[in-house]
Amino acid sequence: MSDVVTPLVADLVAWIAREPRAYADVLDAWRTSCPRLPVWEEAVERGYVRAVNAGDRTRIVVVTDAGRAFIARRQ
Q1: CATH code, domain carrying 47
Q2: Residues in contact with 40: Cβ distance below 8 Å, sequence separation at least 6, in sequence order
Q3: How many separate domains does the chain show?
Q4: How far apart are CA 20 and CA 23, in angstroms?
Q5: What is the pTM of this model?
Q6: Tens of pLDDT along 65-74?
Q7: 3 state SS of 63
Q8: Which helix (DSSP H) or strand (DSSP E) does residue 49 occupy?
C-alpha cells in the first residue's frame, strides 16, 4: 500500500489503542469509499486491529499485538 495510507493507518491504530472503540463508531469515522485511502480496510488486512464481540450483541474494535508493535515502531 502507498506511503500515503500508512500514516493514516497509524492514526487509526493509535486512536483505538487509547481505548477500545465501538465497531459502528470506528466505521463511521474511518471507513471510506475512496479506493486510494482504504484506512480501515488496510488496518484490518495488516492485522493491526480486529473486531470482537463484547457481549449483548455489541462489537468493539481492539488493537492486536501486531498493531501495538506497529505503533511502537513509529514513535
Answers
A1: 1.10.10.10
A2: 12, 26, 27, 30, 31, 32
A3: 1
A4: 9
A5: 0.87
A6: 999 999 999 8
A7: strand
A8: strand 49-53
